């Protein structure tokens, strides 16, 4: 397999990557056959996976515009993935030219491609780091250059928490990040769930097994379990809802049934 120029020498391109699988669902070009094969296996059980990912991205863009409308000019996107059209910095800096965006991901391909996309953008940067080590993120000089924790921040944890197992205590990491944020900050979350998927849970479990087999377990939490990530926040209306129902631009009834899989929400610190 020939290694493309955008793939760092340090990565094993024979092993599937969650970021590159996600890129494939969105119609991107930064993925390998091993990623496409895993994605196709997952779609055998859940054909609407690309629709779910598109709904996820559409929600993220609406949430970023909402944050900008609320006067927030700092965005910390952890688990940011491979940039695609309409990413956080594009939406935020379009709404507010001085907006500052810090991307964080532990996937080398996501980091390398983000560096290329952000070249020359003084108000956006990317850091290779792990959500489960929040203090390392918050104390990093790159982050501190762009993000002033004494002012409100929009913290994005979009489609990342469902890749963190309970044994790794994602609630603790999210609480540590919350405690570092200034009053008026926002938490933006999307999370996979069996609730809302338009097919039997037994069939959806086939997709979960595909992710388990590539050593990236997909943790399907209930709405109640997802709501726990917002402890210490006041929920922004309409609360924790299926993605197309959060402040939609178009009528939710026009959306694909798969788009209603899982939940999205925004919380505000007091």
UniProtKB/TrEMBL annotation:
Residues 248-270 are annotated as: Disordered. InterPro entries: SAM-dependent_MTases_sf (IPR029063), SAM_dep_MeTrfase_SAV2177_type (IPR006764). GO terms for biological process: methylation. It holds the Pfam family Methyltransf_19. One of its GO terms (molecular function) is methyltransferase activity. The keyword Lyase does not apply. SUPFAM superfamilies: S-adenosyl-L-methionine-dependent methyltransferases. The keyword Ribosomal protein does not apply. Keywords: Methyltransferase, Transferase. This is SAM-dependent methyltransferase. The lineage of its organism: Bacteria, Bacillati, Actinomycetota, Actinomycetes, Kitasatosporales.
């Amino acid at each position: 397999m020939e290694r493309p120029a955008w793939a760092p020498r340090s990565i094993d391109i024979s092993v599937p990557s969650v970021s590159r699988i996600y890129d494939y669902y969105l119609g991107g070009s930064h993925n390998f056959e091993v990623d496409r094969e895993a994605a196709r296996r997952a779609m055998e059980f859940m054909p609407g996976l690309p629709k779910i990912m598109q709904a996820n991205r559409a929600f993220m863009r609406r949430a970023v515009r909402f944050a900008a409308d609320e006067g927030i000019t700092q965005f910390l996107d952890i688990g940011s993935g491979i940039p695609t059209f309409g990413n956080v910095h594009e939406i935020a800096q379009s709404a507010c030219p001085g907006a500052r965006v810090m991307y964080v991901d532990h996937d080398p391909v996501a980091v390398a491609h983000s560096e290329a996309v952000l070249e020359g953008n003084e108000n956006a940067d990317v850091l290779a780091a792990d959500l489960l080590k929040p203090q390392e993120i918050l104390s990093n000089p790159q982050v501190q250059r762009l993000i002033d924790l004494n002012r409100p921040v929009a913290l994005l944890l979009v489609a990342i928490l469902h890749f963190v197992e309970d044994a790794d205590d994602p609630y603790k990491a999210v609480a540590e990040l919350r405690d570092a944020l200034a009053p008026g900050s926002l938490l933006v979350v999307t999370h996979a769930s069996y609730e809302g998927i338009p097919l039997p849970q037994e069939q959806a479990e086939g997709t979960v097994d595909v992710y388990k087999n590539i050593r990236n377990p997909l943790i399907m939490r209930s709405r109640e379990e997802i709501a726990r990530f917002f402890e210490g926040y006041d929920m922004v209306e309409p609360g924790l809802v299926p993605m197309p129902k959060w402040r939609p631009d178009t009528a939710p009834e026009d959306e694909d049934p798969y788009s209603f899989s899982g939940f999205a929400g925004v919380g505000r610190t007091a």
